Amino acid sequence: MIELYYWTTPNGHKITIFLEEVGLPYTIIPVNIGAGDQFKPEFLKISPNNRIPAIIDNEPVNGGEPITVFESGAILLYLAEKTGKLIPQDIRGRVQVLEWLFWQMAGLGPMAGQNHHFNAYAPEKIEYAINRYVKETGRLYAVLNKQLAEREFVAGDYSIADIATYPWIVPYERQSQNLDDFPNLKRWFETIKARPATIRAYEKAEALKTQPLDPEKSRDLLFNQSANTVQR
């Protein structure tokens, strides 16, 4: 059984999509990041960066003590290797999947995240920052669109590279992007959106909706962290 420490963010959706795709038994342990659950000592033991998602694998392949993993890309890679699914076994295919997994982790996720922040959460509208991240998000969409011109999925067959990327495209309107400008990406997006595992994963997210939180308190918890947050 996999224990999934989860909240309804793009990085959280990556793991529920994977687990639903492969049929690996798991239980969700909600970590409400708007309420500060990510700072609880029991969560920090498995995710020292106070970010979701994180997992505990109580049945590692080789037995022994449970294994904890934090960071969504590391979790996807760990689970793919554990199950032997959604990652190629040949070296060339594996390298290509890892390239695009790291592309999402280092590029699309952080840039789209800053796009979200300056467009939706920043207390003041900074035109330079908004333009910077909207344009960079668009550039990354164009890179993905070009990659998908001659292949159904990002690295050939459906893989953890697609699973990592899809949730960051879901809020495309919030990122000031139009999928009609990227026809190959749009075709790919609609294909993954219709997969039964994707549908089930997002239904799990809907089930976790809670009462509205204090927006000022949530903003402070999410965006005003510093070294003191970690050291206290």
Could you characterize the architecture of this molecule?
The chain has 232 residues and is of the alpha+beta class. It has two domains: 2-85 and 200-215, Glutaredoxin (3-Layer(aba) Sandwich), CATH 3.40.30; 91-195, Glutathione S-transferase Yfyf (Class Pi), Chain A, domain 2 (Up-down Bundle). It is built from ten helices and four strands. It has helices spanning 10-22, 41-44, 72-83, 91-121, 127-147, 160-169, 183-193, 196-206, 215-223, 227-231, and strands at 2-6, 26-30, 54-57, 67-70. It has a four-stranded mixed beta sheet, with helices on one face. Helix 1 links the parallel strand 1 (2-6) and strand 2 (26-30).
The secondary-structure class comes to: alpha+beta
Strand adjacency order, main sheet: 2-1-3-4
Helix content: 40-55%
Provide the low-confidence segments as ranges. Answer: none
Count the E strands.
4
CATH architecture of the largest domain: Up-down Bundle
Please give the largest β-sheet. Answer: 4 strands, mixed
Record the SSE blueprint.
Blueprint: E1 2-6, H1 10-22, E2 26-30, H2 41-44, E3 54-57, E4 67-70, H3 72-83, H4 91-121, H5 127-147, H6 160-169, H7 183-193, H8 196-206, H9 215-223, H10 227-231
Parallel strand pairs: 1-2
Antiparallel strand pairs: 1-3, 3-4
Helix pairs in contact: 1-3, 1-6, 1-8, 4-5, 4-6, 5-7
